[in-house]
Write a structure and sequence with these properties.
The chain is built from 14 helices and no strands. With 227 residues, it is an all-alpha fold.
């Protein structure tokens, strides 16, 4: 698809009310919004992926947040892990709000088949002090490394994410809440060690307590761990 076709499609599918609602949630420095819903962007990315998607990724303008999200969703169609990591490395610097981070990165299902490669890839981002590089690391850990093999390493890695910024803190808190739902005993012991900053620690507990998959007794016990 040509960029003119893509832009025309985006504008035809833009919803002003959805744009206004989304703009109230996404940091203004993230760029302009058209108001195109995620399922529509996913379908469009599938069409682009059938053509010269690399040219689109490398050369298409990024006027709207939807332009960047399309590039992120394109990564989900890559079938070669070397190619995926090459373009993921190029995509992460484009992330400047949570919207272009979370949904695109959690769509990278190929990672499940190559966890060891991606685990090594992630280490630099875990240590990175930039807010959205760190959120990207937390997001990928949450989506692909909360399992029997990696849970201990994932909890330790989340404790090492020290970048400043609200969206880093919220990303780590969200990841901890997912860890708790799947591995409650290990995650509770982790929280007792108090290795997170106070805001992230307390926000993680709040998010766990908001889950319908956590019973009242556990929620009450966790409340006592707040700092």
């Amino acid at each position: 698809m040509h960029i003119k076709e893509i832009n025309a499609f985006l504008k035809e599918n833009a919803e002003p009310k959805f744009r206004d609602f989304s703009a109230s949630l996404i940091p203004c420095e993230g760029g302009k919004l058209l108001g195109v819903r995620l399922p529509t962007l996913r379908k469009l990315s599938a069409k682009i992926a059938k053509g010269d998607w690399e040219d689109y990724f490398l050369n298409a303008p990024e006027v709207y947040i939807e332009h960047i999200m399309l590039k992120g969703f394109l990564l989900g169609h890559i079938k070669d892990i070397d190619v995926l990591l090459k373009y993921l490395k190029l995509y992460i610097p484009k992330i400047n709000n949570w919207a272009v981070c979370d949904s695109p990165l959690c769509s990278l299902k190929l990672i499940r088949k190559h966890q060891e490669r991606v685990w090594v890839f992630l280490q630099d981002y875990i240590e990175d002090k930039r807010e959205y590089y760190a959120r990207a690391a937390a997001c990928l850990l949450m989506c692909f490394f909360v399992d029997d093999k990696y849970i201990d390493g994932t909890l330790l890695a989340l404790s090492k994410i020290k970048a400043e910024g609200y969206y880093r803190q919220m990303g780590v808190a969200w990841a901890i809440s997912v860890c708790y739902v799947k591995f409650p005993a290990k995650t509770e012991e982790f929280l007792k060690k108090r290795t997170l900053d106070v805001f992230t620690h307390n926000k993680a507990i709040s998010k766990i307590r908001e889950s319908f998959r956590v019973n009242k007794a556990d929620k009450d016990r966790l409340q006592a761990l707040k700092r």
